[in-house]
Amino acid sequence: MAEKTTESKEVLIEDKLKSLYKLQTIVSQIDKIKILRGELPSEVQDLEDEIVGLQTRIANCETDIHKFEGDISSNKLDISNAESAIAKYKAQLDNVRNNREYDHLNKEVEFEELNITLANKNIKELSISIERKKEEQEKATQLMEEKNTVLAEKKEELEEIIVETKQEEETLREQAKSVETEIEPRLLTAFKRIRKNARNGLAVVDIERDACGGCFNKIPAQRQLDIRLRKKVIVCEHCGRILIDPDLAREVVKAESK
């Protein structure tokens, strides 16, 4: 009776290992699809962010141009008011009664002439600022058009890949979910944790040339024997990946190909 229980337990461990490796082969195929898409999703996102930034820059330029144009109009009004004041003061000079009044009116004229000079200087500087903002706006608009063209191409390329691989990925994800139900939660959590920390996404690997198929560190002969016996879940002492023997890996692949 004890022998039967032990045998049942051993088979259970072997089944667990097979389920884990089966899950690994499925998620690895999903990884390949993601690799096929490459950096396109992040490139599309980066381009969209850049375009939003350029749109903001163009809008800010437009706001600045309107402000500068308003300031020019204000300075032109100051010039007009100063010219009117000068005309008024010069007319009053013909009717002055003493030198003090004459000097006062001349100072008022000089003051208004200084205002005109300052306003003209402001208008010149504002006009230069407008031209610079228009150049900046034009460059940003041109760059945005170029980015939009590239974005359209990247989106089309990404969409083609997604269409080509969507059905395959959905099928693989359904298969992965199905296999996950065969694995106890504790072991599944460990699998996902190992996979997340593994650079190549491999949480379950077989032995290749007496070494771990993940980190390629040598595995002692006794440990290899334990792995071949399939009596317990054994992890690589170097990288933490779950180890299986090559025969088990072939059995899973063969079973899946039927």
Concise overview:
Helix content is 80%, strand content 5%.
Your description of this structure?
- The N terminus is likely disordered.
- With 258 residues, the chain is mainly α.
- It has two domains: 110 residues, no CATH class; 121 residues, Helix Hairpins (Orthogonal Bundle).
- Helix 1 packs antiparallel against helix 3 and helix 1 crosses helix 6.
- The protein has six helices and four strands.
- The protein is rod-shaped, with a radius of gyration of 40 Å.
- Strands 2-1-4-3 form a four-stranded mixed β-sheet.
- The two termini are 35 Å apart.
List the keywords.
258 residues, mainly alpha, Helix Hairpins, rod-shaped
Secondary structure blueprint with pairings:
Elements: H1 2-37, H2 40-93, H3 99-180, H4 185-197, E1 204-208, E2 211-212, H5 221-229, E3 234-235, E4 242-244, H6 246-257
Parallel strand pairs: 1-4
Antiparallel strand pairs: 1-2, 3-4
Helix pairs in contact: 1-3, 1-6, 2-3
* Structural classification: mainly alpha
Radius of gyration: 40 Å
The count of strands amounts to 4
Top-tier CATH class of the largest domain: Mainly Alpha
| Poorly predicted ranges | 1-11
Q: Averaged pLDDT, please? A: 91
User: What gap, in angstroms, lies between the N and C termini?
Assistant: 35 Å
Oligomer: single chain
Count the helices. How many? Answer: 6
Percent range of helical residues: over 70%
Find the CATH topology of the largest domain: Helix Hairpins
What gross morphology would you assign? rod-shaped
Q: Give me the strand/helix succession.
A: HHHHEEHEEH
Q: How is the biggest beta sheet arranged?
A: 4 strands, mixed
